[in-house]
Amino acid sequence: MIKLKNNIATSENGFIFNPSTGDSFTSNPIAAEIISHLKSGISTTEIKTILLKKYDVEVKQLERDWEDYMLQLKEANLLTF
Question: What is the extent of the structural domain holding 41?
């Protein structure tokens, strides 16, 4: 299961702070929603289902965007597996 690391600070408006590295990031509203779901421990399958219901996006596009965003979060050292 993919989760946001416990020590990562987030805000509702998309600000992300990693106290371990001092790095901070901003995200768009959809990315902030994903971060919020990851932080709460919702499974990736559930998050994708929520996004597909809420936004006008095709499954293939969501999968591509999801993989890109997870790679960005992984490279920023924000995820735990």
Answer: 3-80
- Residues 72 and 79: their CA atoms lie apart, in Å, by 10
C-alpha to C-alpha distance for 19 and 48, rounded to whole angstroms: 28
Which amino acid is present at 69?
Answer: Y
Query: How many CA atoms, within 13 angstroms, populate the side-chain half-sphere of residue 51?
Result: 26
Q: How many domains does the chain have?
A: 1
Place of tokens 């001092």: 22
- What are the tens digits of pLDDT across the range 7-63? 999 998 899 999 999 999 999 999 999 999 998 889 999 999 999 999 999 999 999
> What residue type is assigned to position 58 of the chain?
E
Q: Which helix (H) or strand (E) holds 80?
A: strand 79-80
The residue whose two tokens read 């289902």 is 49
Placement of tokens 């997870």 in the chain: 70
